[in-house]
Specification:
The chain is mainly α. It has 6 helices and 4 strands. It has a domain of about 130 residues.
Length: about 190
């Protein structure tokens, strides 16, 4: 039961995806009740409680500016990885050029990119860019590390999000929980780190 003491005393903003705040009524007994963050990363996937609370800074999603900055960092790291991955192929081919549009080489680069993101997300939940901007990938399916299946779904979902002219990322602005397409597909979300 929600008790309203003043006009705004029991209505508090909660942080959505860092884009738009969501306003929810907070019960006086919210501290004792089962609570879940408003963004949807529930502690238990079977928890259907509707009581929400203010998220601590650690639980909030990073701001859009920090997300873009981390993408730039990871893009530069990925270019360096692709440079050395290409060097291995060129040396193995004894310096002969790789044909433009070679599907095997494209697949090789995609697998190299997944190896980078999958390893980082699965091991620590952070890529180089995410570590620099202090946020991490967590599973919204429950406690525990992000699985390889979730990293694969997130990677493929991010490719689809970008291929659709960025609509998968823009979706987070309108999604009630602030999720992108690949967040929903992989059941993961981003949270501020220590």
């Amino acid at each position: 039961m929600t008790t309203y003491v003043g006009v705004f005393s029991q209505i508090r903003p909660t942080c959505g995806a860092g884009f738009l705040p969501e306003y929810v009524a907070v019960s006086r007994s919210a501290a004792a009740a089962r609570v879940r963050p408003a963004l949807g990363c529930r502690a238990n996937s079977h928890d259907n409680s509707t009581v929400t609370r203010d998220l601590t800074p650690k639980e909030r999603a990073p701001s859009p500016l920090r997300l873009v900055a981390a993408m730039v960092y990871d893009g530069l790291a990925l270019l360096a990885i692709w440079f050395f991955a290409t060097l291995v192929i060129v040396v193995a081919r004894r310096g002969t050029a790789i044909d433009a549009g070679n599907p095997f080489f494209t697949l090789y680069l995609a697998l190299t990119a997944y190896a980078y993101f999958g390893y980082c997300w699965g091991r620590t939940g952070q890529t180089l860019g995410m570590k620099s901007w202090r946020f991490r990938l967590v599973s919204s399916a429950g406690p525990g590390p992000v699985t390889w299946k979730q990293t694969a779904l997130r990677f493929l979902g991010a490719i689809v999000s970008v291929a659709a002219c960025g609509l998968g990322y823009v979706w987070a602005l309108f999604d009630r929980s602030g999720y992108t397409w690949h967040d929903r597909l992989s059941r993961t979300c981003l949270r501020n780190a220590d």
